[in-house]
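pls ignore typos typing on phone
oxa(dethia)-CoA + seq
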Amino acid sequence: MKRSRITGLGFYVPDNVVTNDDLSKIMDTTNEWIIERTGIKERRFFVEGVDTVSSMGAAAAKIALDRAGKKPEDVDMLVMATLSPDYFFPGSGVLVQRELGLRKIPCFDVREQCSGFIYALSLADQYIKTGSVKTVLVIGSEVQSNVFELSDRGRNMSVIFGDGAGAAVLEAQEGGDSYILSTHLHADGGHAEELMLEHPGSKLKERISPDMFEKGMFLPHMNGKLVFVNALKYFPEVIREALAYNHLKVSDIDLFVPHQANVRITHAVQKEFGFPDEKVVSNIHKYGNTTAASIPIALTEAWEEGRVKEGDLVCLASFGSGFTWASALIRW
Ligand code: UT7
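k done
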């Protein structure tokens, strides 16, 4: 039976480091508030004239391909997770394809926000298992800071989210013990408007007009408390689902790589499962919440630090806008 193995990882973050103190000079916030509520010390914002979702995704992908010993012509499929594509259409997948010089392969854009990377990973895994493709590039990339209002009105979003990209190369293999054991995807559109960017969209059944900018309809909106409460419910649920599906125990997990939503969410899940610190990857203090990019960035950093070893059981999990939530168990 064919299975998918992750053979290369890479990430890219913009050079523009924005500290909490930088933000406190332009809006009513403080370093203390941001650290206490989120664990974030600094984040990266795109460099104007340099970084886009596709350029950052391609940069991360080049590193991942190189580490996998693969060339652009080896890639059979690309799955790109982003909520902030370069254009409203077409998707950013084809732009990465063009930038990397990939063949005329299928290129998907996957939304699913904070769960985007696991959704993309799952899609790639299914295609590999059916034998239709052998090598897939999976990318999570976001430029979110270009729509934030860097003012008091936008502070509840702009202090949390950041920009960056991460990528993984998946390869088909027969036999062997290192592969993606399973992925588990969920959604509940009942809370779609609790974390969203309303425009440009068709839901209001109105033509776009200049006053919509003034009303903030082009700004992201988040009901932070509701998102928080649901994250605490669904993170554990989807991790338990993955463990039960594979007849594994909590203690079998060697490394937990959660979506970097908020350090308080990570700590709550860590406490619930009794994970020691060395089993949990947390880098939100450096990059903030990079949505679809957060898991591949965190996984790549952990791998670079030697925290992911052959035979380890790695658990990925996410929760975010949609609501969507997901998990993946990987035997490294
Ligand atoms: O990736 C998945 C998507 N997002 C998440 O996972 C985020 C989940 N939610 C959260 O992380 C938290 O709800 C937040 C960090 C967003 C907010 O923390 P909170 O403890 O829920 O704060 P709050 O929204 O209830 O606001 C508390 C106070 C309010 O002031 P009052 O009404 O108590 O006077 C806010 O106006 O903090 C104020 N506030 C701020 N103060 C300083 C809100 N944003 C800021 C800010 N700086 N940036």
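The pocket of oxa(dethia)-CoA is lined by residues 29, 33, 37-38, 114, 155-156, 159-160, 195, 224-225, 227-228, 231, 261-262, 265, 289, 320 (CB under 6 Å). The chain is about 35% helix and 25% strand. more later
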